Amino acid sequence: MAHLARIDLKPKELEKLSQQLQEILGFIDKLKEVDIKDTAPTSHILPINNVLRDDLPGESLSSDKALENAPERQGNFFGVPKVIE
Amino acid sequence: MELYKLTAHELIERIDKKETNSEEIIGFLEKRIKDVEFKVKAYVRLSNSCFSNLTHNSQNLTPNTQHLRPILKGIPISIKDNICTEGYNTECCSKILEGFKPPYDATVIRKLKQAGALIFAAKTNMDEFAFGSSTENSCYGPTHNPWDLDAVVGGSSGGSAAAVVSDEAIVALGSDTGGSIRQPASFCGVVGLKPTYGRVSRYGLIAFASSLDQIGPITKDVRDSAILMNVISGYDSFDSTSVNVDVPDYAKSLGMDIKGLKISVPKEYFIEGLDKEVKTIVEEAINKLKDLGANYKSVSLPHTQYAIPVYYIVATAEASSNLARFDGVQYGFRARCAKSNLIDMYKKTRGEGFGQEAKRRIILGAFALSHGYYDAYYLRALKVRTLIKQDFDKVFREFDCVVTPTSPTAAFKIGEKIKDPLKMYLSDIYTISANLAGIPAISIPCGFTKKGLPVGLQILAKPFNEELLFKVAYAYEQNTPWHSMKPKI
């Protein structure tokens, strides 16, 4: 799971976290008691859907502003380690 | 008169009468912060330039033009560290966002500026990424409760609540995903409001759980809360979850009487686990509302006990998605890598940059969404969420509001719950349902324990009925002494 979440964990962390997550999941298992037959899921509390705007260009951040916080900048790009071998 | 003791509305009145001005207010605030901040630690990244910056901005306030309504006339406002302020570091009190200077203002900040408010450059302390109920999960260390410096301030907007009660802030903004405005407000003895979901724009709020988050005011009294809500509420095209419902003048709800008000008190909130002193104090508060003309009746919100498990699946699932962006590429901390490989950079950056609670929640959330577990956990939680919302819908058909304690206990000691995540999660029991149901809720001070710690009363109303919350909260406040009591720091 840590790999899926892209988080490096030290062995001690891994151990402690596994234990804590087991406990939390045990508690969450309480949800199995509930009768959810015929109940629709609520992923979003408001009755609004597909909020779109017209596809018209407007103001946006300049490249310089967007790259201001970059840990590594290369020209107009964010510099990162090799992606493709 | 030490101006830092006053509320925003009192200061605005004096400014209008030309009895004081921004510069004087800033001067008093600076002195107050220098006197007590070393004990409270409500702020992060505080420096002298924060004050000169305020003074500079007060001198450059745009004169009153037709489209600007400077309701806040040069009042300084303190902001939680997860709300983007252009040019002022916004780091969610996390190492992984160190050095981040947003290139834009959150919509609420833009609105506050348009109303003449002065944004304080030092942000208020918080649990990292809003993950927490005590402000102990901050990379800067905890904030100390001005009522008892060994006690927590609550979380995650603990810094904002502490700053307001210690008079280190006139008013503040916080954010609330599972109680993060209301619970610290109750632990610190101030007023905290979580608006209806969609009432206040989330644009510029660094997201924790997108279907639960809301920004809201933390203030010394109810009137200040109403004034801030007048400024920050409203439809925003930049937030696709913001709702196009008119913003009433919330201040008009203040002073209305509550005769005949129908209050419901959910029995599931008054069971084992609720501290006996808190129970007594809250029952007295409900009786006070009765003296003021309201009627109350016991009701049932049968799915209350499932709110915490639902929350810790839904919120962590959404958090795991929202925090995927913190990977060292575009902003913040990037780990030095021995191997030059992108995935290793992600893993090392996130491993070193996130605190324990952040890692716990991200991994739990990813698990709940993962193949093979999605139906059993996430989908099931979403269905129980519907049932929780329906419990409230049913009650609101007959009653005007729901009244509960804000928290099962008063402020606990620093270090008391931090080692046991599950114990910490259980302290959110009374606040979480409002986020799941999307309804507005306010916490107001209603008394003190024998040890001198504040207790909060929570009032909940149906969606977009903040007016009712203000009406009831103001009536209670004005007939009780709590709001004028201050800690001796």
Describe the structure.
The complex is a heterodimer of chains A (85) and B (489). Chain A has 85 residues and is mostly helical. Chain A is built from two helices and two strands, in the order H-H-E-E. A two-stranded antiparallel ribbon of chain A has the order 1-2. In chain A, strand 1 (73-74) and strand 2 form a beta hairpin. In chain A, 11% of the residues are buried. With 489 residues, chain B is an alpha/beta fold. Chain B has 15 helices and twelve strands. Chain B has helices spanning 8-16, 22-40, 48-59, 107-114, 158-165, 182-188, 222-232, 276-291, 307-322, 342-353, 356-369, 375-398, 421-426, 432-437, 466-478; strands at residues 43-44, 76-79, 118-119, 123-124, 171-176, 191-194, 214-219, 262-266, 295-299, 401-405, 441-448, 454-460. In chain B, helix 5 (158-165) packs parallel to helix 6. At the A-B interface, helix 1 of A face helix 9, helix 10, helix 11, helix 12 and helix 13 of B.
CATH architecture of chain B: Alpha-Beta Complex
The best one-word shape of chain B is globular
Q: Largest chain interface and its two residue counts?
A: A-B, 49 and 71 residues
Distance between the termini of chain B: 18 Å
Number of domains of chain B: 1
Class from helix and strand fractions of chain B: alpha/beta
The count of β-strands of chain B is 12
By CATH, the superfamily of chain B comes out as Amidase signature (AS) domain
What would the keywords be for this entry?
heterodimer, A: 85 residues, two-stranded antiparallel ribbon, 27% helix, B: 489 residues, alpha/beta, Amidase signature (AS) enzymes, ten-stranded mixed sheet, two-stranded antiparallel sheet, 12 strands, 11% strand, globular
Q: What is shown here, in short?
A:
The complex is a heterodimer of chains A (85) and B (489). Chain A has 85 residues and is mainly alpha-helical. Chain A contains 2 helices and 2 strands, in the order ααββ.
